[in-house]
Recover the amino acids of this structure.
């Protein structure tokens, strides 16, 4: 089997999207699948019936020639929107997206053999546009074998054991809800009573970063200590996940939320919103899932700060549970079956 990946340019896939693509690619290669990225059209001749195309993302004009070639050469193709057609994403720069979608993009997505999502919620949203499409929901797998290492991580980062560390590690974009988190922290009374350190790892547009930093400066003592670390997407990020007491991703929209999985796999609790597909977190005793609102986040933070202790045994138990459910050994077989279904024309709807 040969799978051709077509991907957005590097600047548009930094962070979670790049990780998702590369680790899927790594699993497929280990399973004996040939994977090629952004192949020239002359290499897409469909010389046999074991070749397909996998588009990652939408809104890419460079994909248009490939879509047309697939139809002419009768090469099956699948599309992973990676959250780019979620309701919040539609509202962001709506004036530009709607015309392009209805004039150009919709036809190409409607012609896909399958639409691949990472959650049932995203699949449901896609069916509103494509009621006859075969939408398949498959979770992403772990991006590393890392496990809890709380004490060593804290020492490496210089965080005192008496501090309560709240971590935000993601692309800094309005969708991610960092402003909500900062505003909520100004209203949590015990944030000032505890030794809280807010650590922000990530990067974004300068204008938006300046806006957030001005807010932090104006808040003064209403906020705990805030560390702006900058972008870290390589293995150095793991110490932040391992050493934090609580990871926060208060997003308005996430098709998966890979950073949530990365936090859970090292046993660190999570505060996220019901706009991510992580509703099981409270039942695992692993954190909080709330509305993406300042009041809801403030309430969850207050509950957490009242009892921030999290024994190593609970970290280890959570990590073991997540590794068992989301290792590529656990989820990878479903991807192979998915691709086989595309090639054989079998029904594989959710």
């Amino acid at each position: 089997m040969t799978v051709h990946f077509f991907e957005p340019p590097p600047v548009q896939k930094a962070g979670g999207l790049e990780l998702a693509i590369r680790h899927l690619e790594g699993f497929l290669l280990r399973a004996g699948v040939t994977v090629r990225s952004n192949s020239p059209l002359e290499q897409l001749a469909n010389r046999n019936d074991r070749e397909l195309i996998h588009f990652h993302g939408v809104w890419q004009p460079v994909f248009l020639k490939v879509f047309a070639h697939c139809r002419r050469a009768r090469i099956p193709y699948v599309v992973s929107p990676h959250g780019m057609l979620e309701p919040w994403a539609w509202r962001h720069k709506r004036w530009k997206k709607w015309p392009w979608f209805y004039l150009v993009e919709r036809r190409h997505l409607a012609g896909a053999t399958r639409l691949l999502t990472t959650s049932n919620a995203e699949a449901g949203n896609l069916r509103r546009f494509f009621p006859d499409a075969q939408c398949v929901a498959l979770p992403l797998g772990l991006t590393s074998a890392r496990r809890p290492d709380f004490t060593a991580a804290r020492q490496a980062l210089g965080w005192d054991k008496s501090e309560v560390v709240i971590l935000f590690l993601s692309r800094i974009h309005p969708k991610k809800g960092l402003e909500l988190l900062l505003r909520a922290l100004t209203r949590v009374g015990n944030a000032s009573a505890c030794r809280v350190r807010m650590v922000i790892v990530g990067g974004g547009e300068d204008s938006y970063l300046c806006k957030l930093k001005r807010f932090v400066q104006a808040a003064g003592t209403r906020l705990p200590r805030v560390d702006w670390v900058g972008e870290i997407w390589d293995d150095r990020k793991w110490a932040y996940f391992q050493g934090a007491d609580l990871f926060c991703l208060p997003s308005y929209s996430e098709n998966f939320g890979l950073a949530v999985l990365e936090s859970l796999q090292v046993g660190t609790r999570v505060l996220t919103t019901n706009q991510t597909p992580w509703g099981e977190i409270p039942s695992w005793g692993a954190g909080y899932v709330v509305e993406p609102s300042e009041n809801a986040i403030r309430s969850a933070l207050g509950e957490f700060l009242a009892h921030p202790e999290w024994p190593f045994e609970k970290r280890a138990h959570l990590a073991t549970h997540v590794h068992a459910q989301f290792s590529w050994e656990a989820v990878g077989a479903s991807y192979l079956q998915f691709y086989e279904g595309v090639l054989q024309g079998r029904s594989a709807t959710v």
User: Anything to note?
Assistant: The two ends are 23 Å apart (CA to CA). DSSP finds 14 helices and twelve strands in the chain.
